[in-house]
Amino acid sequence: MANALEALFKPIQIGNFKSKNRILMSAMSINFGVDDNGYVTDQLTQYLVERAKGGAGMTLVGGGNVHPAGMELPTLPKLWDDGCIAPLKVLTTEIKKYDAKIGIQIMHGGRQCYLPEKVGPSAIPAPAVVKGTVRALEIHEIKEAVESFGDAARRCYEAGFDFLELHGAHGYLVSQFLSKNSNIREDEYGGSFENRTRFLFEVIDDIKKKTAQDYPLGIRINGDDYMENGWGLEDSKKLAPLIEKKGVAYLHVSAGVYGSKELTIPSMYREQGCFVYLAKAIKKVVSIPVAAVGRIKDPKLAEKILQDGDADFIAMGRPLLADPYLPQKAKQGRFTEIRPCIGCCLGCIHAVLQREPGSCVVNPDVGREFRLNKKETSSSEKKDRVFNVLVVGAGPSGLACARHFALKGHKVTICEKKENHGGLLSLAAKAPGRDDLNDILEFFSNELNRLNVKIEFNTELSKELIEKINPDKVVLATGSMPDMPLVKGLFQSDMEILTCVDILEDDENQEDIKDNILVLGGGMSALLIADFLAEKGKNVVVLNRKSSYATEMSSNDRYYLRERLKENSVKLIKNVSIAKFLKNGVVFKANNEEQSLDNFDTVVIAEKMSPIREAAKLLKDSNIEFHYIGDAKLPRHLMYCISEAQEIIG
Question: Which are the catalytic amino acids?
Answer without folding.
Answer: 172
